[in-house]
Known about the structure:
Layout: H1 22-49, H2 60-66, H3 68-91, E1 100-103, E2 111-115, H4 125-153, E3 155-158, E4 166-170, H5 174-184, E5 191-194, H6 197-212, H7 220-229, H8 233-250, H9 255-268, H10 284-300, E6 306-310
Helix pairs in contact: 1-2, 1-3, 3-4, 3-6, 4-5, 4-6, 4-7, 4-10, 6-10, 7-8, 8-9
Amino acid sequence: MGSESPESPQIIVHWERPREPWLRYALLFVLTVLTTTYAGQMHYASFVVNFSNRAFAMAPWNLFLHGFWYSGSILAILGCHELGHYFACRYYGVDASRPFFLPAPLPLTGTLGAFIRIREPIPGKRALFDIGIAGPIAGFLVAVPVLLVGMYLSTVVRIPPDYKGQVIEFGEPLLFRFVSWLTFGHVPDGYSVNMHPMAFAAWFGMLATSLNLFPISQLDGGHVAYALLGRRSLWVTIAMVVILIGLSIMSSSWIVWTVLTVGMLVFMGPRHPPVWDEHIPLDTGRLWLALFAVVMFVLCFTPAPIELLDAFRG
């Protein structure tokens, strides 16, 4: 009893990792480079025109190269965010894809971001926490120097009295406002910061960080909230959806994100998938990292990301 004879049948399961879709990775990345560089051209042209009504003229290839100010910066932020998740998965032996970049012919961003696919269950609460928080921290650590350099390259300009058209006002996160103050001091009425494309890339990177840190279901912030609160994180998810609806009423720029978030909850359910050790509390070091995640969210969040203002003067 308790032993197995040599003749006993044995079942051996061979599990192979799926083949990586390298062509798809490369194609999506190249397309995203093109769409973000095209958006970067628009940002650079706007930066050079400098709130004036004069025509912009630059050789196409020269303008294309200047588009990399934005595309290189935003791809670095988004790519490091996803690589943070990926290497955390590798550390815990969790099978995950490389980053998929999402090209989009959008005039402001040129991309819908990036993501990785986690292809097997996460083994426990600590792994879940570390994988969830690694992305925002990695992206944030890249966005900060990009913001510092981008703000240094930006200028403060007076909006001409005869300027006619619409001005896009970007809501300033606390970190963005602080770096602007360090660089330029107080910006008087009638003047505006003319953002260099790198500064806009940092702004968009901070917006993406704050969106991912919302403590909702299976967003990065949702992973952190579940690791901290267990099943009680469901009530945090519900409260944050209510807050998102309120933000959408206050600023229409939140409507798309709110619809996507609600759709995710309908499709995937509001409860976070459980882990076997959800009853075991996190250690002190991870609690400090959770507090840092809250700080990142506060520094990167803005209640009204994009507003169109009529600027008919004269």
